[in-house]
Write a structure and sequence with these properties.
mainly alpha
């Protein structure tokens, strides 16, 4: 079982659809977690493996699972700027307003790291820009702090 888990996590990271399909035929658990609490979906999204993420979702991967730090697949996609993956996750019901252990949301991560296409996408789909993180900062405050003028405009800062 441990080898199957390692293969599944590796296939998610590398986008090895052949291995992933074989494991899924054997009823592999798509919601297993590694030592950091990351699921294959979180890993695939973080690694920009769109087809892998799609296949995992088609096989009932839980879209809103959080790792030990509170990260979701959508937060990872927002942090890294993976627009197509973020769109896929949103289509599959990703919660736009889940908060990381420090209170940050996907919108905040996109704002902090200048991923303005993601900021726009998240806002378009109803992300709550009034949520505050653990330091009392909203996404607009983070945009100002980072000097992200485009996000400031999008967030009305």
């Amino acid at each position: 079982m441990q080898i199957e888990h390692e293969l599944l996590l590796h296939a998610a990271r590398t986008g090895d659809l052949d291995v992933l399909n074989e494991l899924l035929k054997g009823n592999a658990d798509v919601n297993i977690k590694d030592e950091k609490g990351c699921t294959p979906l979180i890993i695939a999204c973080d690694s920009n493996q769109y087809e892998t993420a799609k296949l995992l979702l088609e096989n009932k991967a839980a879209v809103n699972t959080q790792d030990l730090e509170g990260n979701t697949a959508l937060m990872g996609a927002s942090f890294k700027g993976h627009l197509a993956i973020a769109e896929l996750l949103i289509e599959q019901g990703a919660d736009l307003n889940l908060q990381h252990n420090d209170g940050r949301t996907a919108l905040m991560f996109a704002t902090m790291f200048g991923k303005n296409e993601l900021v726009q996408l998240l806002l378009l789909h109803g992300a709550d820009s009034t949520i505050c993180d653990g330091k009392g900062m909203r996404a607009a405050d983070l945009a100002v702090q980072q000097g992200n003028k485009k996000a400031q405009d999008l967030l009305g800062a």
